[in-house]
Structures are given as C-alpha cells and as structure tokens.
Amino acid sequence: MEESTQAPAASALILAGSRPEPDLLALSQGVSHKALIRIDGHTMLERVHAALVQAGYDRIYVSASDDGVVALAQGLGMIVVPPATGPSGSVARVFELSGAPLLVTTSDHALLRPEWVRDFTHDAPAHCDVAILLAERGEVEKAVPDTKRTWLRFADGDWSGCNLFLLNGAGAARALQLWSSVEADRKRPWRIVGRLGLGTLVSYGLGRLTLADGVRRLGKRNGIAAEVVAARDGEAAVDVDKADDLVLARQLLARRVASV
After folding, report:
1. Is 142 within 8 Å of 148 (Cβ atoms)?
2. Rounded to two decimals, what is the model's pTM?
3. Rounded-to-integer distance, Cα 113 and Cα 248, Å
4. pLDDT tens, 152-178?
5. Fold of 127-238
6. Is the pLDDT of residue 142 over 70?
7. Distance (Å, rounded) from C-alpha 3 to C-alpha 24?
8. CATH of region 10-111
C-alpha cells in the first residue's frame, strides 16, 4: 500500500448523536448518554477527546444534542454542532465547516489510542478521497481473544470496522452523498447491492473479491477514490455498544494500566 507523508489533519469529529429509542446501556449506568459512561474514572467522550488531542488535533468537533454531552464537550473546548437526521448528515454538516482533511470517529471508541490515529492517517494513501480503517480477524483475535464481532467476509479474510474514517480529498463530499443514499435505502437492500455492479457481485459470489478491491470498485463507480487501511492493532475494532463491550473495555483498560 502506498504510504502518505501527510501530517495528521487539524480537524476531527466525534459522533455522539442520540437515537430515538432509549439508550439502555446508558440507563444501566445511570447516565443520559453512553458517551458519559465512566471507565477508570473518565467518561468515554473524555477518553476519545484526549486521544485525538495527543494525536495532534487542535480543532475537535462533536455532533451531539444531549445536554450532558454538550456541556462536557464545551468544557473540554470542543466545537458542538447539532446532529442531523443520520450519521452521514451529521458528518456532512461538520465537513461543510471544516473541509478536508477531516478525521471522523465515535464517542464510544473508548479504547482509542493516539498511535492508532497517527498510523491510520500515515497509512492512508495520499491520493484517496476517503479512507476507512478496518481490522482483519486474525489481528483482532490476537489482540482480543474470544471477542464476538460482526465480520465482513471477503477473499482476503474476515474484517471488522474500527470506527475511524478519513475524509481526505475533493471526492469526500460525493462519498458523504453515497453514504446518505445507502442510509436511505437500508430497507431496500437490492438498491444497495445494485451499486456494486454485476462484475463485482460475481467476484464476491465466487469468493474472489478482496475487501480493498470491493471498496475501490464501489468508489470508482461513484467518482470517489476510496481506500481500506488495515489496522496495525486488532484492539482498534473494539467499541462500546452493549453491556458485554463495556465489560471488555474495562478489562482491557485495566490491563493497560497494569502493564505501565
């Protein structure tokens, strides 16, 4: 993979929107939003913010409407932007303010390390409009044995998302439009599949399509230079979306503290 010599982007966004339904994980921990859940004395939002600051980001946005999250973010010096209807709209709203490059992550990425961010932006090809960090199953299971993940199955292995995205070039706005249309079609999967094209579908069905090639093909069909970046640390695939994830995150952070 081509290496980029670009410096980390000055702007980053933390997604911390609220869903229409009650956040059961947050309620179980006595807070209004899961970004406010504390792990080893610090909220998840504080942990993500600290990792971004240590990675060199000096302009950090947060997409949030929960009063507690907004107050905490403002206290940390973050720029609060009200969320749109869906994640793609929230990212697009901030992208209009920040421009490229913009790093995007989520408030439940409680284990985020600054070196993961630096490695990601370094490994992302300089020419790409958008880059996505994913971790290969072997790396994830090496770092976090017995973890339960949702895997994307391709010819080059099983992959899991890492909640890190880089909007890097002129085509990033088109990538956000594509993301928005995929969200709109989530109940009409045939339309999403149709965007891949017959050749790509055949390659996938025959087990010959790699993840990177699939993402490149989808991007090319939409005028976007899209790239997958492989995570160097499989632990980057762990976020906190349910009770088991919270238990795991606390165990992993305790292990970090003990190893120092």
Report:
1. no
2. 0.90
3. 16
4. 888 999 999 999 999 998 899 999 988
5. Spore Coat Polysaccharide Biosynthesis Protein SpsA; Chain A (3.90.550)
6. yes
7. 42
8. 3.90.550.10
